[in-house]
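Table S2 (text version). Query chain:
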Amino acid sequence: MEGISYQWYEVADNREEVAGTAIEGATEQSYTISYQKDTSKTYYYYCVATVSGVEGRSNTIEIKVTISENPSQEYTVTIMGENVTHTFSKTKYKAGETVSFTLAAKKGYEITSVKKDEEELNKGADGTYSFKMPGKDVTITVSTQKSTGDFDAIIQ
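Corresponding structure-token output:
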């Protein structure tokens, strides 16, 4: 409609009394949401339309953003920890691929925990750790402690 100006806003929650932040360039009757990386967050938007100096604010709408991972994007797995060695079949993985790896504590140490971004991983029956690769780089944190039961015995 001619003579109407629009401005879209993003706001922290859906309460009508909360003022939002104007979205640069979002000045059309409709607004297409640009790529948002954080899929754990809920986004709220509203529009202010102005006709001959009189403003009218739309209701705030709630948008839950779901991102489809780029199928060709590859992500890395980084192992953090001392006194441990690791083996991977490859160094880069696509989202949804199964990542499998083995860990071995250096002599005199034992592995006490293995975490993927704070989520505990358990060793499988075949001795490997595995998980589905998310659409982001992953850090595996391995904790070790000195062994208490491994001794070299000399028999004469």
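Notes on Table S2: The chain has no helices and 13 strands. The chain has two domains: 4-64, 74-146.
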